[in-house]
Amino acid sequence: MGPFMSPFNNLLCMLLGISFTVWFTLLLVFIIVPAIFGLSFGIRSLYMKMLLKVFKWATVRMERGAKEKNHLLYKPYSLNGIIAKEPTSLEEELKEIRRNGSSQDLDEFEMSDTFYFCRRGIESIVDDEVTKRFTAEELDSWNLLTRSNYNFNHISTRLTVLWGLGVVIRYGFLLPLRLTLAITGVSLLVVFTTMIGFLPNGRVKNFLSEKVHLMCYRICVRALTAIITYHHSENKPKNGGICVANHTSPIDIIILASDGCYAMVGQIHGGLMGLIQKSMVKACPHIWFERSEVKDRHLVAKRLSDHVKDKSKLPILIFPEGTCINNTSVMMFKKGSFEIGSTVYPVAIKYDPRFGDAFWNSSKFGMVNYLLRMMSSWAIVCSVWYLPPMTGFLSRLMAFLLVKETGFVFFFRDGGLKRGKVKDTFKEEQQKLYSKILVGTQEDRSRS
């Protein structure tokens, strides 16, 4: 057996060596080198166009088959909500409730008024407009991902075969390729930023740090097969400013940092994330806080203020919503970002959910699970809008600019509702409104 196995082992080793060489050469020529120089061969754009044609054909086949078999494909309330609501005022609804009662005048409390508040409470539980923004949106068409349409059933053999072929392509080819690129990008970031950290502070160090960060982030972008369209590049954030963006996913950072360098702000972590943070801060002045320092607003504000006063330092990247929102809305920005007194550069990010859902539901998926879902999706397609810089009080209005540019829905609610209880101030708003109606009616009667 020995003499016969030796040639076989040699042949196997030679084939593995050739495969590895070809694999690494393709990565180097078509992905790593273009990422260094910021070039693109247009392969991802062709890939996206091909996917759109496949999705269109699959959707037509699915709808035709569903019609023949009388299957329900889409939830009837996916767009308009579960409960049909008409915009009416509190005063009008109370009058409607009292219409059949003993008194229709709103000059004193009636027990029947409680029915209004009970109904509104039940409606909020069944079809809450705010907490819906913390769950993944459902598509109106199928993109061959079972997690994108929970009402999908077996419609035809062709669609099932196509879906199976997609699974093989995504997990057998795309996922290993993307994992290789992600490991390459992160490894190069750690090694090169650590090396740059030994250089003395100056223009050379800043130049090399910027080039290394851009190269590594662009490799990571390719690890997601991300196709990004940037608009209004003349408004890109400049040194000494603050970049403020809506927040859908942890990859928002990679999406923005692949087009320009930023100073990151965050809590110090352990493990692999901690290693990356330590290496990055050696080459670039990022702002990391200890766990005990995060809740100290004055300390955080001072660190940020000291950073923006130095016009040679990179712009700070901040997500003032404080949590991830599901790519359909913008929620109330926390005011701390606007109290520093620096120029604010608003940035709007909107993902195309047809190719993969970029929203991170942190209460449902851990970081590793989420990243695996991203890398096993078809692609990440998004648009980024750089909006005109703002200063002073006007910067508080930038959420409305983001809504106008992206078509998002704006909710004047705190993103902290994702995990916290409803604030007492929200309850007091309804109480004040109700009491104002009663008191106002009594005052009108006394004057007459």
What does this structure look like?
The chain crosses the membrane at residues 20-43, 155-173, 179-199, 370-387. This is Phospholipid/glycerol acyltransferase domain-containing protein. Residues 241-352 form the Phospholipid/glycerol acyltransferase domain. There is one protein chain. The chain is an alpha/beta fold and 448 residues long. The chain has 12 helices and 9 strands. The chain has helices spanning 2-37, 43-69, 90-98, 114-126, 157-196, 203-222, 252-257, 271-283, 297-309, 367-375, 398-406, 424-447; strands at 226-231, 242-245, 265-267, 287-289, 316-318, 329-332, 344-352, 380-386, 409-414. Helix 8 (271-283) links the parallel strand 3 (265-267) and strand 4. It is flat, with a radius of gyration of 27 Å.
The strands making up the biggest β-sheet line up spatially as 1-8-7-2-5
Number of helices: 12
Distance between the termini: 112 Å
User: What structural category do the secondary elements indicate?
Assistant: alpha/beta
Hey, roughly how much beta strand do the residues contain? 5-15%
Largest sheet: 5 strands, mixed
Average predicted local confidence, pLDDT: 76
* C-alpha Rg (nearest Å): 27 Å
Order of helices and strands: HHHHHHEEHEHEHEEEHEHEH
Write down the overall geometry.
Answer: flat
Poorly predicted tracts of residues:
76-84
Give the strand tally: 9
The helix content, as a percent range, equals 40-55%
